[in-house]
Automatic annotation (TrEMBL):
Keywords: ANK repeat. ANK repeats lie at residues 93-125, 126-158, 159-191, 192-224. It comes from the Eukaryota. This is Uncharacterized protein.
Length: 237
């Protein structure tokens, strides 16, 4: 424990997700019906390759106009295309319009889709639900909307990673704080036997390590390589 605490007291990781209001489901649009752009963590997610690649050229026939409108955050077109297309239709990657809106940070579209019975627990080909994708892209507002609508916060991707594992890797402080406040299990192991604490230590996200320790994460649990968070803390210094 002392080694982990010393690790936390060392150089702090300055990377945090931006603070946005996760309690507001408002439709902020310009005259074209498109969401007004805002600075948010999903931009970082997309730039580092954690957002989706979407083909808007029309070559991907599984990508409906509803998918495209949700991806672009165009609420008026989403409303229009919902009259023709299934709200839970999936593309070739098993992504629904809700996946795409959540990944892009279009909280107003996420709210609308949920209000119109979009299913929130469909997995894409990587096992990601819209909730997990919003977490991975660092979009706190969309994460908050989905959590408040009662999504399963313990859901895992194909590698057994929970939302807490993902935030530990990405370094999203405020999203991790939110998840812990909602009672996420901080000692859940993924398919490699890693807890979120293993990952946060290995990634040197010191403030996240401190959060997890405060939440009661155990420091002596071994992963499949017989490594504990204590051992990793000693290794990274």
């Amino acid at each position: 424990m002392k080694r982990v605490l010393n690790f936390v007291k060392g150089r702090r990781d300055e990377r945090k997700d931006r603070v946005v209001n996760s309690n507001i489901c408002v439709e902020i649009t310009n005259p074209l019906g498109q969401k007004v752009p805002s600075e948010d963590e999903h931009i970082i997610g997309l730039q580092t390759g954690y957002g989706y690649d979407v083909d808007l050229s029309g070559k991907d026939k599984s990508m409906t106009k509803l998918h495209k409108s949700a991806w672009q955050g165009n609420l008026e077109k989403v409303k229009l295309h919902l009259k023709k297309f299934d709200i839970n239709a999936v593309d070739e990657c098993n992504r629904t319009p809700l996946h795409l809106a959540a990944a892009q940070g279009h909280a107003h579209v996420v709210c609308f889709l949920l209000n119109n019975k979009a299913v929130a627990d469909i997995n894409d080909n990587d096992g990601m639900t819209p909730f997990l994708k919003a977490v991975e892209c660092g979009v706190k507002e969309c994460v908050g909307v989905l959590v408040e609508r009662g999504v399963n916060i313990s859901v895992t991707d194909n590698n057994g990673n929970t939302a807490l594992h993902i935030t530990a890797k990405q370094g999203f402080f405020n999203i991790m704080s939110m998840l812990l406040k909602y009672g996420t299990n901080c000692d859940c192991a993924n398919n490699s036997g890693e807890m979120a604490l293993h990952i946060a230590v290995e990634q040197e996200h010191r403030e996240l390590v401190e959060l997890l320790l405060q939440a009661g994460a155990h420091v002596n649990v071994v992963d499949r390589e017989n490594r504990t968070p204590l051992m990793l803390a000693a290794r990274v210094g």
